[in-house]
Amino acid sequence: MLIHRIRYFPRSSWSGLNVSDGLQGRNTNSNIPLSYRNVRNNVTVAAHTGYPSNHWHLRPLSLRKQVKHFELLNSTSGLKCLSTYSDAYHKSLTKPDEFWGEAADHLEWFKRWNQVLDNDDQPFTKWFVGGEMNICHNAIDRHVNDGHGEQVAIIHDSPVTDRIEKLTFNDLKDEVSRFSRVLVDQGIQKGDIVLIYMPMVPQAVVAMLATARLGAIHSLVFGGFASKELSVRINHCKPKVIVSANVGIEPSRTVNYKGLLDAAIEMSDHKPKTCIIHNRTGYPEADMVKGRDLQWSSAVSDAKPHDCVPVGAMDPLYILYTSGTTGLPKAPVRPSAGYAVVLYWTMKNIYGMEPGEVWWAASDLGWVVGHSYICYAPLLHRNTTVLYEGKPVGTPDPGAFFRVIQDHNVTSMFTAPTALRAIRKEDFDGNHSKSYSFPNFKNLFVAGEICDHETLHWCRETFKVPVIDHWWQTETGWAITATCLGLGDEATARDQSIGKPVPGWDVHVLDSDNGQEVSRGQLGNIAVKLPLPPGSFSSLWQQGDRFVTTYFQKFPGYYDTMDAGIHHPDDFISINARVDDVINVAGHRISASAVEEAMVNQGDIVECATIGLKDSLKGHVPVGLCVLRSGVTKSEDQIVKEVIHCVRDSIGPVAAFKSAVVVSKLPRTRSGKISRQTVAAMANGEEFKIPPTIEDPTAYSEVREALQKAGIIS
Ligand code: COA
Ligand code: AMP
After folding, report:
1. Above 70 in pLDDT, residue 69?
2. How far does the centroid of ligand 2 lie from the alpha carbon of residue 449, in Å?
3. Which residues contact 654 (CB under 8 A, 6 or more apart)?
4. What is the mean pLDDT of residues 203-223?
5. How far is the CA of 401 from the centre of ligand 2 (A)?
6. How remote is the CA of residue 654 from the centroid of ligand 1, in Å?
7. Residue 71 has pLDDT above 80, yes or no
8. Is any ligand 2 atom within 6 A of the Cβ of residue 224?
9. Partner residues linked to 111 by β-bridges
10. Which of 204, 296, 475, 681 is deepest in the core (most CB within 10 A)?
11. Would you say residue 500 has pLDDT above 60?
């Protein structure tokens, strides 16, 4: 099916023309006209609704020249908008070298790669082999060199301190290059680790980029983790330098970051050489350890700028710990160049953003969303990024998100459904939103956990924009499935779907018992056929074997996402649940085993289990089930209080562990395994089957009664 009639205006007459006047085409068979979408001076050729986009090849060859002009016209974003979603998807899988090679050409390289893809040692796939670049150069210096130094790069909006601060790309270059020098003065070189434990302040972004500027590796730890969890990470990645702050500000309290850090270093066998502490003005200065601690402001004051260092394409940019099935968190490693290439690509092709527009990811730098979409992607794509130090509600009210969108003229934003549920809960009628005006707001993206139908619809009505769910993981670093707005996908994806596979991701749904592909529409394990695209994790830090056995052993030739879901006949995908023992709490992964390890610290517990109970705000919350040793005389109430304290003390407030019950036994299989999933299903009122290997099935009813008695379930 070919387009056989295309009317073309000479290039000179494009100026001032609505671009959609420039081309005309019709499909001979169906008589369907070629359709356009004109998005602010930028044109995407989109497939006509319901008509497969890969049928819209512009032929005959004599028209190629005209097509070139079309591409040129879109070169403001540096991206060609000719391809539709299915063209791009097809090409990304059949000609990955060409596809990602073209994408990589939009960034600046110190040394061009000599091979785009080397898949000889799967799953240790290499991208842009032989290439050298620096992500910090591409995120900052490149824009300054191109004359955009005065554009605002970061807006720090902090309702908890009542401050708004703006940094231009010039400011950012100055801050980052001088902080790089401070790091070098402390002995940091390419490949060294800098651990960052900071609240949502611009200095955290500066520390990330300054580390990347040197080809060193950062490891950010979310502030809601307690000292014990922090010490586990310090011991594992062995940072030479740690960057932190005196305090973080939560609506209900001031978090003593420096105190938590000192306690973590005390617990840890590994000791950093230096800690650089940013003292936030208006709050008590941190106590400094002589010979180890440096004040950020004094260290930076005389520092001369340091240039970007060329970094090998597969050299690690960062390590970001995430929860797994065991107590020891997993440490995915992010390769630098492929990540830069795909993040830049996603800003236009998934999120539909144009350079210069304002983007807001309302998350925390400590999570993968923060790494990818607060820090790197918007800066790479020359978008202004909002760094929000507040909550969706209570800072000061449920109008906070609408205020930020209005005040900073946000084009599109990204958040977790939990945050939206919190706003809806407090302002069901959406009255707060009515006090603000945001005519330029285009799209609201959600990810991190399942977005329920009610919240999705409420958001569409209240934000008055498409609400687009998409799915990804710490390991992947960017979306596996989404609605690719920049590739002409319609923003009205079907409900309860996380979109379609994004170019680069060869998504399959497999039977967990035999590894065979299930039919479309059937539930199974979601897996991605190798090779994984650029930007996804390259290994687990110093645990290559664990990398292979955890993710690539169950389904040879595939990456096991550990999510269950359905690939529908119309290509949309929906997610059901995690298949491992990870509990998704407010969009964060919490390991059931890690919570259990903390519970037993209470001292009177012989065995325990943690299950994820449905929660109207946080999606799920962990609930503990404890079996006591014989002869305990303390009251059950007292024990529960102590268990809750132990979890908070060990993992931190982020676990949101607020309830537990005492039972006399747990449902164990004959091999000793506790079937957390079936217990959780029972507690959540879902259908479940008691596995035949459970030794004593009456344990289920006992757990149910205990939860009911404690008022945890009805
Ligand atoms: N430093 C220290 N403590 C922190 C913290 C940080 N950076 N972030 C959260 N905490 C603490 C909170 O103070 C709270 O402590 P508390 O038990 O003493 O009240 C605890 O951790 C749980 O925090 P949170 O999950 O934020 O719950 P909340 O009840 O304070 O707020 C929401 C509820 C819905 C507003 C909040 O969960 C939210 O905004 N979630 C969005 C999640 C998100 O962005 N996910 C990213 C994936 S896309
Ligand atoms: P994290 O690595 O912390 O970002 O968590 C990743 C996990 O969050 C995934 O494996 C899913 O279980 C879940 N998740 C992420 N995005 C979505 C989504 N859009 N819908 C449902 N679950 C999601």
Report:
1. no
2. 5
3. 222, 224, 225, 585, 588, 590
4. 98
5. 22
6. 6
7. no
8. no
9. 132
10. 204
11. yes
Q: What letter represents residue 234's amino acid?
A: I
d(CA 675, CA 592): 12
> What pLDDT is stored for residue 10 in this prediction?
33
The predicted model gives 106-133 an average pLDDT of 98
Atom number in ligand 2 closest to CA 575:
21
- Distance (Å, rounded) from C-alpha 375 to C-alpha 212? 12
Q: CA-CA distance, 166 to 172, in Å (whole number)?
A: 10
**What pLDDT is stored for residue 45 in this prediction?**
37
Cβ-contact 225, 232 below 8 angstroms: no
Pairing of strands 274-278, 241-245: parallel
Q: Measuring CA to CA, which residue among 498, 424, 440 is closest to residue 467? A: 498
Q: In this structure, which residue's CA is closest to atom 5 in ligand 1?
A: 224
Q: What is the pLDDT, as a whole number, of residue 491? A: 73
Q: Minimum-distance ligand to the CA of 479?
A: 2
Q: What band does 83 get if pLDDT is binned at 50, 70 and 90? A: low
- Answer yes or no: is the C-beta of 311 below 6 A from any ligand 2 atom: no
> Which residue from 381, 374, 311, 321 is spatially nearest to 103, judged by alpha carbons?
381
Q: Among the atoms of ligand 2, which is closest to the Cα of residue 589?
A: 3
The answer to whether the CB of 267 falls within 8 A of the CB of 228 is: yes
Residue 338 has pLDDT above 90, yes or no: yes
Residue 562 CA, closest ligand 2 atom number: 10
For residue 403, the SS3 value is helix
Max CA separation in the chain (angstroms):
91
In the sheet that holds 193-197, the strands lie side by side as 293-295, 274-278, 241-245, 193-197, 217-220, 316-319, 332-335, 539-540
Using the 8-state DSSP alphabet, how is residue 277 labeled?
Answer: E
Distance linking the first and last C-alpha atoms of the chain: 60
Confidence of residue 697 (pLDDT cuts 50, 70, 90): very high
Distance of alpha carbon 100 from alpha carbon 103, whole angstroms:
5
Nearest CA to ligand 2 atom 4: 473
SS3 percent helix, strand, coil of the chain, rounded to 5, is: 35, 25, 40
Residues 348-379: tens digit of each pLDDT? 999 999 999 999 999 999 999 999 999 999 99
- Closest residue (by CA) to atom 38 of ligand 1? 419
Out of 161, 220, 250, give the residue to mutate to test ligand 1, the one with the largest number of ligand atoms within 8 Å of its CB.
250
Residue pair 218/212 in contact (Cβ under 8 Å)? The answer is yes
Q: How far apart are CA 506 and CA 39, in angstroms?
A: 29
Contact 488, 46 (CB under 8 A): yes
The arithmetic mean of pLDDT across residues 653-680, rounded, is 92
Q: What integer pLDDT is reported at residue 577 of this predicted model?
A: 85
Pairing outcome for strands 311-312 and 132-133: antiparallel
Q: Omega before 531 cis (within 30°)?
A: yes
- The C-alpha atoms of residue 418 and residue 588 are separated, in whole angstroms, by 10
Protein residue whose Cα sits closest to atom 6 of ligand 2: 473
Give the separation between CA 389 and CA 162, rounded to whole angstroms. 10
CA angle 436, 442, 443 (to 5 degrees): 105
Q: Ligand 2: which atom is nearest the Cα of residue 578? A: 12
Q: Tell me how far CA of residue 26 lies from CA of 3, 22, 29, 30, in angstroms.
A: 5, 14, 9, 8
Collapsed DSSP state (helix, strand, coil) of residue 594: helix
